[in-house]
Amino acid sequence: MQHGMYGIYNDCRCIMKLTVAHSDTHARSRRKRCGPCVLMAPEFEAAAKQLEGKVRFVKMDTDKEEAMAARLNIMGLPTLLFLDEFKPQEGDDSPPAAKAVLKGRLEGAIRKERILELCEQYFFDAPTPL
């Protein structure tokens, strides 16, 4: 899993978790703790491990990346963005660029099972979970 970075990838499916002041080493700013982000961290890690090689999981600290958080219209944390590979239309001769398609968005903490269900739905054409 990639941490502390963001990007739009055109080479694979991606789920981006937007949080406040978290890193792989669990170094946290005591003044900026996000309770739901802390609760969801192990669920996100477990889902990333289970889907390793199929879906790229990325974390972004919204305090460090304020401009990107504003661009993505982040209003609540944690936020999950489900980004899929951009496929140009037939006959599109524009130069390739790093682009992605937003397949889904969810604000609030969820369990690993729900993350996996949503990945199946958005990336692997599974039925919509109830």
Record the strand order, biggest sheet. Answer: 2-1-3-4
Counting DSSP E segments of at least 2 residues, the number of strands comes to 4
What is the assembly state of the chains in this entry? single chain
Q: How many whole angstroms does the radius of gyration measure? A: 15 Å
Beta-strand percentage range:
15-25%
> For the terminal residues, how far apart are their CA atoms?
28 Å
Task: Return the CATH class.
Answer: Alpha Beta
Question: What would CATH call the architecture?
Answer: 3-Layer(aba) Sandwich
CATH topology: Glutaredoxin
- The helix/strand class is alpha+beta
> CATH superfamily assignment?
Glutaredoxin
Helix-strand topology string: EHEHEEH
How many domains make up the coordinates? 1
Give the overall pLDDT as a whole number: 76
Describe this structure in words.
By secondary structure, the chain is an alpha+beta fold. It has a single domain, classed as 3-Layer(aba) Sandwich (Glutaredoxin), CATH 3.40.30. 27% of the residues lie in helices and 22% in strands. The protein contains three helices and four strands; from the N terminus they run E-H-E-H-E-E-H. It has helices spanning 35-50, 66-71, 112-124; strands spanning 13-19, 55-61, 79-85, 100-107. Strands 2-1-3-4 form a four-stranded mixed sheet, with helices on one face. Helix 1 (35-50) packs across helix 3 (112-124). The chain is globular, with a radius of gyration of 15 Å. It starts with 12 loop residues before the first strand and ends in a 6-residue tail after the last helix. Residues 1-12 and 21-31 have low confidence and may be disordered.
